[in-house]
# Entry
Amino acid sequence: MSLKEGFPPVVGKDARVLILGSMPGEESLRRKEYYANPRNSFWRIMAALLGFDPELKYMDKIEILKENKIALWDVMRACARNGSLDTNIENSTIIENDFDGFYSRFQGVKNVFFNGAKAEHEYHKRVFPSLSSITCSVKYQRLPSTSPAMARLSHNDKLIEWSVIKNIF
# Structure
């Protein structure tokens, strides 16, 4: 199975918040867009929190995130995975992104929110131990996955938990 490559970060120069997923799903990879699966509630949640129409074009939604000092990225730069589920990621194939470089470049990022348990787990296992001291003031919090695979919580339940992002500003 060949490695699937993720995306570069979506980030503005004055970002203060970083939302980390694990690895883009198949629909996202196909469309080259973060959270492209229409059943994923990410964009509906962001639209509710930031007051925009979730049906806007992708680049318009990205610009709104940047205007609100929110960056998007994934813990994994690449991995082998059959389908879109995090449970199908072959752990031995994971290549993580360069977070030391990211935090050096975007020193205003002080809050990291994980979009689900896999992103949090892999970050703390693969990234956190090797980070430089520049990141010592970063605060971390896991939020429920916006993936349709996380069916235990309703959209409204997820929205309530994700509203913590609004308290940053």
Summary: The radius of gyration is 15 Å.
